[in-house]
Amino acid sequence: MLELRRLRYFVTVADELHFGRAALRLRIAQPPLTRHIAALEARLGIRLFERSTRTVCLTPEGELFLQQARGVISAVGEAEATARKIAHGAIGRIVIGYASSIPLSNAFSEMIRNTSRSLPEVELAFREVSTASQRQQLIDGSLDIGFGWGAPNLPAHGLQSLVSSRDSLVVAVPSRSAFAGRSSLGFCELAGESFVTFPSAYGSALNTALEDLCAHSGIIPRLGPTASQMTTLVSLVAAERGVAVVPDYTATLQRPGVVYVPLAEPYVLEQTVSWRTPLGSRCLERFVELARTLAAPLPAPAAGPEWRLRG
């Protein structure tokens, strides 16, 4: 196998067409340089240079080989640069799972925006995954990062999380509903309403929050149609198929026919970012470092019950 060092020596001599100047550039003595070129020629079985007492020039074979040698050296340089970027976490791939409504939140947008600015060569791949499903996919390596609701730290499974934001629940009601003009409403007032929810198999944390709110208020929920996308769920409310419990930032959808009414008794969801330890790459480490910076400090939660996803 050819030595990369000898290829570099050859290219330098070809650039200078003078062994003395090439030796100075390479910071080696001229006799060893001459021996290395001779050894390279012997290895290749061709003569690379024509030498005289006054001139050095490339042979036709040397001219052809020079193109290949430059290509090899360039490829090695690119590989070394890539390796350095990998070591610093500047390139790589991160698979991110997110619960349906979370991309609407400022916390999610800010974290992805800052990651893209800080790590522009890191590929971010996105998958919609319910909070309940994220945990197992983080454990088995299908996901690198999960954006969900109230996911706890699970040291036994190597999972960790941090709170990225705290978001209050509101009720999405049809604009022609009697509740639409209210500044707030008590959850117990919804006893006669149908609730638009995510499918039970989806494992939505919002469904579980609805169950908790119903249990706390002593009502049995009347379940209406289901939807697996937040935009569809809100559209069903606009179609007067029921009401829905959603995070307050869902109001950014600005869907005609829907009004968002706060709960009289604030109910807070903790939005979390979760990952598996040990982190598998430097770019993942840098993502978590950014997440920690952006997530802290958080304002104190509002008074009232605080939602944490049940394990």
From TrEMBL:
An example molecular function term from Gene Ontology annotations: DNA binding
SUPFAM superfamilies: Periplasmic binding protein-like II (SSF53850), Winged helix' DNA-binding domain (SSF46785)
GO cellular component: protein-DNA complex
Protein keywords: DNA-binding, Transcription, Transcription regulation
Domain of life according to the entry: Bacteria
UniProt cross-references to Pfam families, sorted A to Z: HTH_1, LysR_substrate
Keyword Acyltransferase: no
Membership in a protein family: Belongs to the LysR transcriptional regulatory family.
Limits of the HTH lysR-type domain: 2-59
Name this protein carries in UniProt: HTH-type transcriptional regulator YnfL
CDD domains: PBP2_LTTR_aromatics_like
Database matches in InterPro entries: LysR_HTH_N (IPR000847), LysR_subst-bd (IPR005119), WH-like_DNA-bd_sf (IPR036388), WH_DNA-bd_sf (IPR036390)
Name of encoding gene: ynfL3
Keyword DNA-binding: yes
